[in-house]
Design a protein that fits this description.
Blueprint lengths: L5 E9 L5 E5 L4 E2 L3 H11 L6 E5 L1 H11 L4 H9 L7 E6 L8 H12 L13 H4 L3 E4 L2 E4 L3 H10 L6 E5 L14 E2 L10 E2 L3 E3 L4 E2 L4 E2 L3 E3 L2 E2 L4 E2 L3 E3 L4 E2 L12 E2 L4 E2 L4 E2 L8 E2 L4 E2 L4 E5 L5 E6 L9 E5 L6 E5 L8 H4 L3
Parallel strand pairs: 9-11, 10-13, 11-14, 12-15, 13-16, 14-17, 16-19, 17-20, 18-21, 20-22, 21-23, 22-26, 24-27
Antiparallel strand pairs: 1-2, 1-3, 1-5, 4-5, 6-7, 6-8, 24-25, 26-27
Length: 343
């Protein structure tokens, strides 16, 4: 058997048509050993390609026994699956190609949130067409076509079916909580987010899938899909980063190390290291920027895209003329260490 790209034992939810709504992988594996891949393939009846194979009780029992001498963690997971009343799956990814099934897509989202791969580190093309739109409730994932019936059943039993949201993506913390982080409002971080150690996400902070932080960092603004925030950077309250889902096109937006985006600021260009964007200033690729010399004279006027990725820049708006200006960032940005040292 050739080397697998990824493997995961999962437990999930079906709708009444036996279609997958979601899958939880307790310990997804990136580049599993040849021994693990061979044992899992034999027990599940896997041969080649990217497949999600439903498991029965006999297969799970065989997996637990055969994995005992190969991978203790995966063996323990298989053993715990023995009494499951929920559908079980073994997902094999022979290569990193676009996901074709819900279990495949969920395995890749788990790889991101488990910090096994970084944003842009796996192919997620076409994932929106694969993932079903689901009602996420206090009774788990429910197919939207079955929601009314389930709500009635709950009421007749004297219960309340609480619908938290209707979305293709669940919140990350229902599947994985990375070590060394603080998340004040868990519903604002989607599965597939990469949250680096030492990151604090305050109540208004938001992190989309295939995006995240290197950590440490303080996030009180929005990290859109595809955006990565470097070490030691601070996103102020209400600030925004333009992602590829919201008009960023094929430009990959990122925030370098030691940067500060002020409250209600925003960027549509990538920032280098040690950059500051003044509170309330939103910079898009076409924003006209006056580049200043040390004495304050205007050297040239450029589009903001011409400054993309450059370090040590301070972006501000002239208080009288409203012109967007850029000069060398003379002040070093240091996060309040007290906020992060106890993560």
């Amino acid at each position: 058997m050739t080397q697998l790209f990824s493997f995961g034992l999962g437990v999930g939810t079906h709708n009444q048509k036996q279609e997958w709504l979601e899958v939880f992988y307790p310990a997804p594996v990136l580049n599993p050993s040849a021994e693990l891949a061979a044992v899992a393939a034999k027990a599940a009846g896997y041969s080649e390609g990217n497949q999600a194979i439903a498991l029965n009780a006999a297969q799970v029992s065989q997996l637990a026994a055969d994995l005992a001498s190969v991978d203790a963690e995966q063996a323990a997971i298989a053993k715990s699956f023995a009494d499951s009343k929920q559908p079980l799956v073994a997902t094999f990814l022979a290569d990193d190609s676009a996901p074709n099934t819900t279990p495949e897509a969920y395995l890749k989202l788990h790889l991101l949130s488990h910090r096994l791969v970084k944003p842009h580190g796996v192919v997620l093309d076409g994932m929106f067409g694969v993932l079903p739109n689901v009602a996420w409730t206090n009774q788990g994932a429910i197919d939207l076509a079955e929601l009314s019936e389930r709500q009635l059943q709950a009421r007749l039993s004297g219960e309340l079916l609480d619908v938290d949201c209707v979305d293709k993506f669940p919140k990350m913390t229902n599947y994985v909580v990375p070590g060394g982080v603080r998340i004040a409002h868990t519903a604002r971080v989607r599965l597939g987010a990469y949250i680096g150690e030492g990151t604090t996400i305050m109540h208004e902070g938001f992190v989309n899938f295939n995006a995240g932080t290197e950590g440490p960092g303080m996030i009180e603004g929005r990290i859109s899909a595809g955006v990565v925030v470097g070490k030691g950077s601070d996103l102020g309250g209400g600030c925004s980063t333009m992602g590829t889902l919201s008009g960023g096109g094929n430009i990959v937006i990122s925030v370098g190390e030691g940067c500060l985006l002020g409250a209600n600021a925003g960027i549509g260009i990538p920032l280098g290291d040690r950059c500051t964007v003044e509170a309330g200033l939103y910079i898009t690729a076409g924003t006209k920027v006056s580049v200043l010399a040390d004495n304050g004279d205007v050297v040239e006027v450029v589009n903001a895209r011409d400054l993309a990725g450059k370090s040590d820049l301070l972006f501000r708006r002239h208080s009288q003329t409203g012109a967007v200006q850029c000069r060398t960032n003379k002040s070093a940005i240091e996060l309040n260490e007290e906020l992060h040292k106890h993560n």
